[in-house]
Amino acid sequence: MARRIPVDDRTGHRTVPETSRRADRLADRISGNRYGNRPTMKDVAARAGVGLKTVSRVVNAEPGVTPETERRVQEAIDALGFRRNDSARVLRKGRTASIGLVLEDLADPFYGPLSRAVEEVARAHGALLINGSSAEDPDREQELVLALCARRVDGLVVIPAGDDHRYLEPELRAGVATVFVDRPAGKIDADVVLSDSYGGARDGVAHLIAHGHRRIGFIGDMPRIHTAAERLRGYRAAMEDAGIPVEDSWMSLGVTDPVRVRRAAEEMLSGPSPVTAIFAGNNRVTVTVVRVLAEQSRRVALVGFDDIELADLLQPGVTVVAQDAATLGRTAAERLFRQLDGSLVVPERIELPTRLITRGSGELPPTD
After folding, report:
1. By CB distance 3.0 to 4.6 Å, which of 39, 149, 304, 361 could disulfide with 280?
2. Residues 6+ apart with CB under 8 A from 193
3. For residues 309 and 357, is the Cβ–Cβ distance under 8 A?
4. Alpha-carbon distance 102 to 124, whole Å?
């Protein structure tokens, strides 16, 4: 208890300083309810002078409580800051009304609309969404997924970083609904919702070929990533369809760090036979390539996979192969809740189409 030191005010009365009063009130509050020690229904019952069952009825909006008693209980709830323990409540029912979303990178603009779409579907089903990022690290992905399972989420939507998901088999057998997005699961059978990375890349490169390009560079993500491998396959297929032999120096896969991508682009654009066009394997690569091309003395054609912000305002606008991230997320989440409802049994692979958006950069003709 804070020490009170009486002082004389101007009227001659002995008073307690306001700072002391505030300290006393704070001490009373802390002594009654320390951080991490939340008020319980027992505390509410004691304050309202009622039984635990009565508090439970009020908290859960059940009948059988008089208006006056309900008012007293509600006043006690408000005074104590009591919140219903949904964890304990849902565990009794066997469902937690929550799902987990594991993304590759929360900072990647591609995942914004995807995450929002999953959240909207979850909300429509009365479920809470908990998300986290694997940072493209398979070990971190596994750690995060199992941490969500330990918290008894009902289901998972996963953008996988790894290629071996056998660690999930016990959770799947235990009834945790799971849908993979953007990339398939590795070494297990599970639902997956994908964009047509192969077809989209093939169309984008064919578009450059149709505008007269023969020396076309490809800069993509790490080859172990499903989408990167599929987009490279689409690039090769388009070149083969046109009868154009591909030189090793025209292809570069690796981390999407701007330093690595810049170096790859500059190497392709130099030498006696530089590329006249570049196909960028994802939005992060496209942004760096746009910066590199802005420094070039000659105009180089560009098509990127994934749309980027302000792509239509650049000069020229950036031609892209666009995938619908929101539809990916919505489709995956709806499938997840169909699993939870028991209406899905056999895992399926769903592949969504991409769309070529022409804005100018992909329509530039070769300069030599």
Report:
1. 304
2. 179, 180, 181, 182, 328, 331, 332, 335, 350, 352
3. no
4. 20
**DSSP letter (8 states) at residue 221:** S
Pairing between strand 191-195 and 349-352? parallel
Q: Report the C-alpha gap between 221 and 257 in whole angstroms.
A: 9
What are the pLDDT tens digits along the chain (368 aa)? 444 444 444 444 444 444 444 444 444 444 444 555 678 889 999 999 999 999 989 988 899 999 999 999 999 998 888 877 655 555 445 566 899 999 988 888 899 999 999 999 999 999 999 999 999 999 999 999 999 998 889 999 999 999 999 999 999 988 899 999 999 999 999 999 999 999 999 999 999 999 999 999 999 999 999 999 999 999 999 999 999 999 999 999 999 999 999 999 999 999 889 999 999 999 999 999 999 999 999 999 999 999 999 999 999 999 999 999 999 999 999 999 999 998 877 899 999 999 999 999 999 999 87
Tokens in use for 13? 């009365």
Compute the residue count for the chain: 368
Determine the distance from the C-alpha atom of residue 189 to the mean position of all C-alpha atoms in its chain, rounded to a whole number.
Answer: 22
Q: Contact at 8 Å (CB) between 289 and 260?
A: no
- Cβ atoms of 238 and 201 closer than 8 Å: yes
Exposed, middle or buried: residue 118 (CB in 10 Å: 0-12, 13-18, 19+)? Answer: buried
Q: What is the DSSP letter of 317?
A: B
Cis amide leading into 17 (omega within 30): no
Q: At what angle do helices 111-124 and 325-340 cross, to 10 degrees?
A: 30
Provide the residue type at 113 as one letter: P
Q: Return the H-helix or E-strand segment holding 294.
A: helix 283-294
> Which pair of tokens denotes residue 161?
């970083």
Angstrom distance (rounded) from CA 158 to CA 191: 10
Residues paired with residue 219 on neighbouring β-strands, in sequence order: 252, 280
Strand locations in the chain, DSSP E?
A: 7-8, 14-15, 98-103, 128-133, 155-158, 177-181, 191-195, 216-220, 251-253, 277-280, 301-305, 319-322, 349-352, 355-357
Token code pair at residue 7: 């002082």
Closest CA to 265 of 248, 282, 250: 250
